[in-house]
Amino acid sequence: TGWASAMARLFTFLLTLLGVHLVAAAFKICAFNIRSFGRAKAANQKVMGALVQILSRCDITAIQEVRDSRGIAIQMLLRELNRYDRSHHYSRLESKRLGRGSYKEQNVFVYRMDVVSIIDWRQFEDEKIGNTEAFVRGPFAARFHSLFTAILDFVLIVHHTSPREAAHELNLLFDMCKELMEQWKTENVMVLGDLNAAGAYIPANAWARIRLRQDLGFHWLISDTEDTTVSHRTCCAYDRIIVHGEELLGAVVPRSAKAFNFTQALGLSEEEALGISDHYPVEVNLRLAPKAQREL
Ligand SMILES: *[C@@H]1O[C@H](CO)[C@@H](O)[C@H](O)[C@H]1NC(C)=O
């Protein structure tokens, strides 16, 4: 088995080199609310075909709205993704099943394990009975480590706010970030996901009270004018990427944060696109480490 594991390591190393040679000169982090991703979608070849094309663009994707009590759908997605993109090996880290009552969702980090690894993670709690201060669905945080990025370690916090509680939960996220930065002794955190941080969910007069927005340490990379929704009837920046920490901000490729319009990229009709999700993924690029660039 020593020989086998040595061969496996060599193979992974070669894949890594190959991957770095083949992909773009940046490291892409994405967040994607795949509306109600469960077994029905996982069984739909057209939807799965589109999803693997979308996910294979990203080194890390923070997926929201995974809805399958048996966990089969996400397993199928990973299998298809690894089949589709053989230049990388994709792995996943799942949150708890989150939510009040019987309606549950999971957040899942899908990441290229030949490029980046997870060294720690933390699940924040759902609302406890009698505690109105908590989240409807607790955010999920993971600490990533990569030799390929201009920053060695960074924290991603994926969250899907409850629409009606969006303003309140954005404030809770501020406290949560402070707590996590203290616990993990780092300033470099990125909050990403469907925060419902737009439109009717955040009344214009609420912004002034939202510390995550007002605190100058937090940089909102997806602006209010971005449209992260698929339908042409809606136009809202629900999905966001927010960066804290000078080192992480410095590692971000300027102006790389945007929504990924897969309707256009995959040449779909609006109806076909809505079959995949009602949200576009949002994404941002990190610069590569000088060493990784030399290998290109
Ligand atoms: C996405 O692309 C489609 C097809 O080109 C276009 O009709 C739509 O307006 C675009 N949506 C956004 C939000 O840019």
Task: Describe the protein's architecture and organization.
Pfam families: Exo_endo_phos. It comes from Anolis carolinensis (Green anole). InterPro entries: DNase_I, Endo/exonu/phosph_ase_sf, Endo/exonuclease/phosphatase. Strand 6 and strand 7 form a beta hairpin. Helix content is 32%, strand content 25%. The longest helix has 21 residues. It has a single domain, classed as Endonuclease/exonuclease/phosphatase (Deoxyribonuclease I, Chain A, 4-Layer Sandwich), CATH 3.60.10.10. The chain is α+β, with helices and mostly antiparallel strands and 296 residues long. The strands form two sheets. It has a six-stranded mixed sheet. Strands 5-6-7-8-10-9 form a six-stranded mixed sheet. It is built from ten helices and twelve strands. The structure holds 2-acetamido-2-deoxy-beta-D-glucopyranose. The site of 2-acetamido-2-deoxy-beta-D-glucopyranose has 5 residues, from helix 8.
Measure the end-to-end span.
33 Å
What is the assigned CATH homologous superfamily? Endonuclease/exonuclease/phosphatase
The CATH architecture is: 4-Layer Sandwich
Q: Number of helix segments? A: 10
How does the helix and strand content classify structurally?
A: alpha+beta
Query: Number of DSSP strands?
Result: 12
Multimeric status of the protein:
single chain
Helix and strand string, N-terminal first?
A: HEHHEHEEEEEHEHEEHEHHEH
Strand order of the largest sheet: 3-4-2-1-12-11
The total number of structural domains is 1
* Global Rg: 19 Å
- The low-pLDDT segments are none
CATH classification class: Alpha Beta
